[in-house]
Amino acid sequence: MTMQYLIPEPKTKEIVFEKVLSTDDSATLVEFKELSAKRKAVEESVNRTSNVTDAKNRGLTSPCEQDLNKLGAYIPLLFNLVHYADKIKKVSDLKIRWSSGLISQTIIQRKCPKFFQVDNLMFELGMVLFIHAVKLRERAMELVTTDIKKSVAHYREASGVFNHLSHELLPSLQSSLPPGKLPELTPSLCSSLSLLCLAEGQAVTTKSAEAGGKSESLLSKLHYGITQMLSEASALLSSRANGEFKDLSSRFLEYVSTMRALHELKSQKHLAKMLESEDRVGEAIGVLRRALAAARKSVPSKD
């Protein structure tokens, strides 16, 4: 069984674009209303406030597929709005409000999360793209048992979105954000999530290779590759700037470290089997002992 961890989603408040943006063009007003409708569908999706499945989404059996469909309808319109933002007049603050799903929270805080307001359309775009990547990863997890190729493709696509956030969109947005409050929009976290998705995709491929009876040498190298990616992800998380997402969920951090330890142990196990097949039993035992010792240090002691 492959390790899995669902990234908690942020929550949001309603935006009615035609009320906060001004235009004398009736066609543009219609576009604002369409944007608000698509945004409302995304809002209800992330807030889990609607059980109604519209006709367009009725053929999609997975709730995750439905969420991706809603995001796919909203994101192009949002990109277009961002592109023409300088030509649009605001009649009031945009009041773009999001909470964080990745900070440590009490039960009460989960039910009544704290929202942060940033009147910048790039803030909205960043949060929506983050959720899009999270949903791609979630869909990849769903497909693991039914379609390995599609699962790996979704993991890689999610990795690409996180990478785009980290390197293209987020650096210029940092000065507008409340410091340390929204880890979802920090470049280092998105870089680590990009690596995590690549590692998870390779874990799916490796599991398939194990089932296919590939050589111990190849399997050891595949698991080692996963370990290297997760080590880099852990390094990014531990080297974050002072005050940057200091309250990051311990469950998320433990998932990354435990997964890294697991694949390091598996890599060494396959190496030991290879050595055993070459009658190098003593070396194989030494490899396993060192691997177990390293795993005990890496895995969190608490449940």
Distance between the termini: 19 Å
The global form is elongated
Low-confidence stretches: none
Calculate Rg over CA atoms: 22 Å
What topology does this entry show?
Blueprint: H1 17-20, E1 21-22, H2 26-47, H3 63-83, E2 89-90, E3 97-98, H4 107-111, E4 116-117, H5 121-143, H6 148-169, H7 187-211, H8 216-238, H9 250-277, H10 281-298
Antiparallel strand pairs: 1-2, 3-4
Helix pairs in contact: 2-3, 3-5, 5-6, 6-7, 7-8, 8-9, 9-10
Domain BRO1: 3-303
InterPro entries: BRO1_dom, BRO1_sf, BROX
Family: Belongs to the BROX family.
Describe the structure.
Residues 3-303 form the BRO1 domain. Pfam families: BRO1. InterPro entries: BRO1_dom, BRO1_sf, BROX. Belongs to the BROX family. The structure is a single chain. The chain is built from 10 helices and 4 strands; from the N terminus they run H-E-H-H-E-E-H-E-H-H-H-H-H-H. By secondary structure, it is mainly α. The protein starts with 16 loop residues before the first helix and ends in a 5-residue tail after the last helix. The strands form 2 sheets. It has a two-stranded antiparallel ribbon with strand order 1-2. A two-stranded antiparallel ribbon has the order 3-4.
In a few lines, what is going on in this structure?
Belongs to the BROX family. With 303 residues, the protein is an all-alpha fold.
Summary tags:
Serine Threonine Protein Phosphatase 5, Tetratricopeptide repeat; elongated; mainly alpha; 10 helices; two-stranded antiparallel ribbon
